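Request from the bench team (R.T.):
"We need a structural guess for the complex before ordering more thiamine diphosphate. Sequence and SMILES attached. Just send the tokens back."

Command: build protein-thiamine diphosphate structure.
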Amino acid sequence: MFLKSIINEDDCKKRTAMTNIELNKELYKKIYLMRKAEEKIQEVYYTDVMKTPVHLSLGEEAIVAGVCQALSVDDQVYGTCRGHALYLARSKNLGAFYGELCGKVTGVAKGKAGSMHISCPESGFVASSAIVSSTIPVALGAAFAAKYKKSNHIVAVFFGDGATEEGVFWETLNMACLKKLPILFVCEDNGMAIHAQIKDRQNYSIPEATRSFGLSVHSDDTTDSERIYSITEQAVQDIKKTDVPHLLHLKYHRYLEHVGVNEDYSAGYRGQKDDYADWYARDPVLFQREKLKLLGIIGDEIKLMETEIDQAINESTKLALDAPFPADSELFKDVYA
Amino acid sequence: MFLKSIINEDDCKKRTAMTNIELNKELYKKIYLMRKAEEKIQEVYYTDVMKTPVHLSLGEEAIVAGVCQALSVDDQVYGTCRGHALYLARSKNLGAFYGELCGKVTGVAKGKAGSMHISCPESGFVASSAIVSSTIPVALGAAFAAKYKKSNHIVAVFFGDGATEEGVFWETLNMACLKKLPILFVCEDNGMAIHAQIKDRQNYSIPEATRSFGLSVHSDDTTDSERIYSITEQAVQDIKKTDVPHLLHLKYHRYLEHVGVNEDYSAGYRGQKDDYADWYARDPVLFQREKLKLLGIIGDEIKLMETEIDQAINESTKLALDAPFPADSELFKDVYA
Amino acid sequence: MKTITYREAINQTLVQEMERDPAVFVYGLDVTDHKGIFGSTLGIEDKFGAERCFITPLSEDAMTGFALGAAINGLRPVHIHQRVDFMILGMNQFSNMYSSCRYMSGGKLKAPIVVRAVIGRGWGQSCQHSKSMHSVFAHIPGLKVVLPTTPRDAKGLLTTAIRDDNPVIVLEHRWLYDIEGEVPEGDYVIPIGKANIVRGGSEITVIATSWMNVEALKAAEVVQRKHGVEVEIVDPRTVYPLDEETIVASVKKTGHCIVADYDWVFCGFSAEIAAMVSERCFKELKTPVSRLGFAHTPCPTTRPLENKFYPSAVEIIRMVENKLGLELADLRGEEFYSYENKFKGPF
Amino acid sequence: MKTITYREAINQTLVQEMERDPAVFVYGLDVTDHKGIFGSTLGIEDKFGAERCFITPLSEDAMTGFALGAAINGLRPVHIHQRVDFMILGMNQFSNMYSSCRYMSGGKLKAPIVVRAVIGRGWGQSCQHSKSMHSVFAHIPGLKVVLPTTPRDAKGLLTTAIRDDNPVIVLEHRWLYDIEGEVPEGDYVIPIGKANIVRGGSEITVIATSWMNVEALKAAEVVQRKHGVEVEIVDPRTVYPLDEETIVASVKKTGHCIVADYDWVFCGFSAEIAAMVSERCFKELKTPVSRLGFAHTPCPTTRPLENKFYPSAVEIIRMVENKLGLELADLRGEEFYSYENKFKGPF
Ligand SMILES: Cc1ncc(C[n+]2csc(CCOP(=O)(O)OP(=O)(O)O)c2C)c(N)n1
Ligand SMILES: Cc1ncc(C[n+]2csc(CCOP(=O)(O)OP(=O)(O)O)c2C)c(N)n1
Ligand SMILES: [Mg+2]
Ligand SMILES: [Mg+2]
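Reply to R.T.: structure attached below.
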């Protein structure tokens, strides 16, 4: 199940030529897809057809959509166990997405990876990992390879605020700056690591401390994907021009529990939903839909985009559910090359 | 072989009452001891009686003597494989020092530890390690224990510039600040890690980056141990008053090869000896000897101090050489408590 | 004696030991939240305060070294990991520091540390949330490694571990948390280094670790019913130090030995047991020692492959039949443990 | 064929492979200095430039992950560590990332990485500069582990390792660096997974790894001279994948097996070999498989204890005598390898 219209292979070439309206429509489609794809998971998860812990992306859509929109197809991304949005930003293959979550042969990794390790190397989402911080140095090596091969692409690595507490993060920053590698660090700061608040974990300010390691840092808490797109576009240009690695420190609110498909404000570790009213008022999907309207796009056209996506999601899910599981012999395949 | 006169058990209590002259004599004795103890190793090493790689302290004496002079006997220190000076600053037991280097039963760890793991827990030099950075988090735990037990002592951990490149260093800084632990980080920056210059390894400035983690930082490149003593005394007071961990960033020149007993300027990795003429002109031993003279201490008195130390070193070495090796059965002892 | 779960037994032990000894404290990621490490640390912070029960930054390496510093200064840290896979970030401290700290001090320092970690299978936990690694830890001199199976063992062994003056790694299988059993209410200890004969039998010995005891018990019951053969099950409980005598005595009696270990086979604990038994029961063994463990692959996510990755009661039954030359029993209609019947929705 | 040292063989291999394939590059602490990792990387930077041969910060964890990122993007990193003990700081990457990267991508990614590390004994190297750890790495599916013994093996196996599309860990004993042997000048490969019969013999098999082959050869010579007994020595050369067939064939022939491994015994590679041989040669074994390895202690510094910590030719001789029921030979006057005779002064 391919969503042809959503991501265009030569996006990047077109982008400069893209009108503001086209750009915003594109962003909306991506954000809407992320939102609806996750909601579909929420819907079916209780039936146990997806045997894989899920760390949903609800709330962070603008970041992933905005950053990825500013990357070219040759630029790579690396992620964490919260990787659904990243997959959907990079891969058109919705069938392989749901196939993977359902553990089917149609999955992007034949069901071996599940949600926590989802990737799509053929679309430049090269790897994700459920060990916090562990793709960060891998992305460093990827950036080195890009430079070594004199390719002109950059590598973006996504991680949470918690990941900055692992020593390997600081090791990576140092090496990236020392070797002037084309890498963009994207810190998606939701202020939480599982149920622990950032103030109980960090004595440093992420932008300040990373700046002291030599990076160019840009912070924001917008839910406007176009703004994030612009920031990223600037960062990518800078990286290529100056050889200084950049870090985007972007805040968002995690809508759901850490892992799983439910809200859990009642658990008490971070206040009630009302305490986050400002975030919900700026919800990335709502925000972008309003923006399209402001740009003069009529409700019907929006509805059309949405319907196409809804249908694709429904069909992909159905296909995944109907697809076969891998044969037992698959267990021993691809351990070694 | 105990050097009674060198370190006084209630140093700390006396210290406030110490005159400037007493203090400087004390510092000179320690620095002289460190220098001569290492020179003795240089002298005998070629006979293979010390079967243990040695990372000598020549050049750094003022730092270790100055910092330790400002600590109380209850304050603890942790070190690295370059730990001789630290041992000599804290322990009066010269016999156990040479015994350890010679691998004899009289050694502080019965010869098991050798040079690279030397310590003297009973004198508050609790542990050292030959894995770069690996006592840094251990010192963190020790500082936690001090606070937990409401003791009023602090923990000082010594390490090189290279150690700051290990992620665990930054992890430790964060936790230390977060928990407001009574810890003093002492970075002995010789600009080298083995044969690698700092500019090829670090893209950050140690004081700036550590400050951004929330520490109070003091940098210096003095070879005046009294100055280092004063800086440390201030830092210790501050730590106790403010609960903010401190870092001393102190530069020095490593006189010898990384490991072993020789000069190796001819190897070419860091220029010739002449390039470091400014350091040698300010050599900690010379400097402190001159200062004593300026303070009006006559040559004879200095000579007397030196002779006592020289004799103690000679006797301790002889005793160590004559002492027996541990019995084979010792191999299996003290693996488990 | 009360019947309680494994998670309650752990929780009770922590409370009792913290009450008994003010030097004991508990820390790690997530230990104070409302989930409380699958329930095992719930209520501890409330009872003992934030000094003795606290969370940390996501810094496993530093926080592993931290325990050593606290321990050599008279405290008794209990460091907890939601998954053993995260504990590996502290591997340098385990192999280079914990292991040799006492030895390198000439016996002057002691390091009474407990590191608890959850191992094994959950619901599609995949390759980075499912290891066991006891074979690796036990390989390194200076460490002790414990794998409690029953609620009673969990309490008795954790109590001993906390009172032990050495680093002790306690690995708890996640599925065991729901297991119920009789547990004395007061204080008691189970020595580290003493195996448990889980089931007496005379015809074949199964050495099983952790969750594999549940599988082995089921297999033994089926084999008994179908073939009238009595399987003896020995749970070493502690990987290092190892109670060789109990194992050897059992195999000398039965002449057959299967090792069902909850880990990879190659260079694993099953290899150690097989090597040791093959040497010490050389004359008595009627068939070579057989080994069962994880498939030599990373752990996959999807149902059928995950089921095939892990060893199970069915494989033990087939191995017993094979070794004793029995016909294969018809296993249709048998009910084997499956998490499928337990899971509904998120974590 | 020229006679060169092990260190020259490694150096030659790096040069030849870097000339052959521009994707190969070499990095690690100290690889460009005047000591050049005991001589094995000397001249590489001069020849290939700083892009293809460079040092790094002291950041083993990040630099281990770095190789994976480079490898899955078409490069062929050779990451070098002066001691395997430092490599342990990258354990998370090895066990959680390298091992499963290909599997988790459904076979789309490949990770052609070589990690070279120096193992073993030097001059009072003590507990943190002397491990081997091959048993631990080999335990983890997805990794390959190689222990070359001779200069010829060093070149042939390192060549194969560099061309292999998987992570391969190559562990080189420091004392072997001085060993000389005939090595073909051109290109050649030795397959990973093929054991080497170092010495033919019919009466007893010694499976020896790395430096233990030197000890075993000496032992075999003494045993031959003193007792007229022919010892067969098999060097597995690669720990994983393991050439079981060659080992099994040898033991089936001799009926006796000693495993002399350069590692701790408990849950070690010697356990794996003993378990496998005991199973597959069950009928042919006349005595149980015996194991030799490090003492179950951290490695001490001082002379007598360090000598006792490591297994040696003398112990192999005694074990052979014991297994074959021979009288103990008088070993006075025999010359055994001792580093004492080699070392004069610093490193
Ligand atoms: C090394 C490691 N430690 C602990 C965990 C358990 N864990 C999983 S996600 C998570 C929180 C991560 O927080 P953050 O990096 O901010 O990402 P977020 O979940 O907020 O997106 C933790 C602690 C882990 N997976 N890996
Ligand atoms: C984790 C680790 N990596 C590498 C080494 C090898 N090594 C020993 S000392 C050293 C340099 C340390 O430099 P620094 O911290 O500045 O201390 P210095 O030797 O200058 O006192 C290195 C790389 C080691 N011992 N441990
Ligand atoms: Mg977060
Ligand atoms: Mg230095």
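Two things stood out. Chain A has a mean pLDDT of 95. Chain A has one domain: 15-317.
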